[in-house]
Amino acid sequence: MYGYKHLSNIFKSAKRISFNNFSKIVIMSDCHRGDGNWADTFYKNQNIYYTALRNYYDDNYIYIELGDGDELWENNNLSDIIYAHKDIFWMLSQFYKEGRLYFIYGNHDIVKKDENFVKNNMNYYFYQRTKEYITLFKDIEVNEALVLRHENTGNEIFLVHGHQVDFMDDKMWKLRRFLVRYLWKPLEMWGINDPTRTAKNYEKKEFIGKKLTKWVKEEKQMMISGHTHRSIFPEVDDIPYFNDGSCVHPRCITAIEIKHGDIMLVKWEVKTKRDGTLFIGKEVLAGPKNLNYYFNFNVKADNV
Hints:
Layout: H1 4-13, E1 15-19, E2 24-28, H2 46-58, E3 62-66, H3 78-84, H4 86-97, E4 101-104, H5 115-121, E5 124-127, E6 132-135, E7 142-143, E8 145-150, E9 156-160, H6 167-170, H7 173-188, H8 202-219, E10 223-225, E11 241-243, E12 252-259, E13 262-272, E14 278-290, H9 291-295, H10 297-302
Helix pairs in contact: 2-4
């Protein structure tokens, strides 16, 4: 099936990042940060996201963005997105300065695979108000995939956006970007959703999820992806395919945390105290489960 060989190849060649049972890692994707206008689906959740990001920074987590961090199909200029969400990009730059940030590109920000684009748009940001360049992610690499490798056991977790099994989003992304930017974006102003977008098409979500699950089963390899905006957290006896959801849900953002050898799915949202005070809090949706349960799937699969 389309994309399987490509997934296998990028898994083999992906950069390995060591972690252990003391590591703390948060994985998010599909922020779709826009330029702050009416089409910016991230805008309504920016305060939730910033609060979560600040908490993870203060708690010494590694932040991994699993693709589609920036909405570069609807928007031409990354600088407009940075300007609209300055506080968030400043926070991300603090992670980067401490060696705690990794970016993976998805289909909506696939232009980041171009080293020149990254150099010209992500290393520095020109702040119009002060007429100066501000350092953001100097010399950063944006990867198609990453692999977390446990330094004691050698067990690995494959991190990838997931669009690679969808021909239109993978190979025909320039056509898809054109249609989104010049057809569907104006129509969305009138309440007409893009029926071809994976996040808004239930059948396509199911199709992509099944293809990624099949790859995990055949390759006997644990995976965490994004792309479908549909969070998935398998039971310990199921195929170890995880999905972190998205940051553009109507009232919340979701993420996957790996902490002290456990994995869990969490949700950040606006909550209410009994006195009516609003606050942003975290809720565990699934887990925590020890990673060894999922790594042992490789052993069980060999015996099937």
